Amino acid sequence: MRIYEELFIAKPDATEEEIDAFNGQLEGIIKQAGGAIDKVEKWGVRRLAYRVQKKSEGYYVLIQFSCAAEVVKEVERRLRVTDMVLKYLTVRIDEKLKWLEKRKKARAKRAARRPAPAAAPPAMPAEAPGPAPGAPPGGPAPGAPVPGEAHVAVDQQTPVEQQQGQGE
User: Deepest of 3, 40, 83, 149, by most Cβ within 10 A of its Cβ?
Assistant: First the structure.
């Protein structure tokens, strides 16, 4: 059996009882042929995109069911001959459901192949803060040598200075 959605638009002046009775007829046809009703949604009176049979509003009803293809032909025939129905649309949705399941499986397979994410790279060092509040604007930059200190680390000596220091 296949899964179908049937959306039909009834005349807006149709009473709730008339629409329920018609839904009952459709459900009876489907169940009698061995099908099953999955859900029935009554959307109520809504505005139409364009006028149909001199009506600008319609009562929308959505029925989702599963049955054989022959049953759908009978349901559509009933919708066509009923004066209360302005328009109807039948859509087979089991193909889309199969496609969605296939996509989910493929996505899961790709995720399983993908290696686990590596540890986050080290954060970039933050830029040095500007001058402290109240400090003179022309003061030394952070990390700059302080005037009056003549300190040179061994790492900061040039290769020539290092050779001179070894010869003594």
Answer: 3
- The answer to whether the CB of 82 falls within 8 A of the CB of 66 is no
At 10, list the tokens.
């009834």
CA 90 to chain centre: 25
Domain range summary for the chain, segments of one domain joined by +:
2-98
The alpha helices in the chain, defined as continuous H runs, are 16-32, 69-81, 94-113, 159-167
Domain 2-98: which topology?
A: Alpha-Beta Plaits (3.30.70)
| Structure confidence by residue, pLDDT tens digits, 7-19 | 999 999 999 999 9
Closest CA to 10 of 80, 60, 81, 56: 60
- 42-79 residue pLDDT tens: 999 999 999 999 999 999 999 999 999 899 999 999 99
For 48-54, which contacts have Cβ atoms below 8 Å and span 24 or more sequence positions? 48/9, 52/9, 52/86, 52/87, 53/86
Reading the block at residue 61, the tokens are: 């009803």
Distance (Å, whole) CA 27 – CA 63? 9
Q: With DSSP H G I counted as helix, E B as strand and the rest as coil, what are the percentages for the chain, rounded to 5? A: 35, 30, 35
**3-class secondary structure, 16:** helix
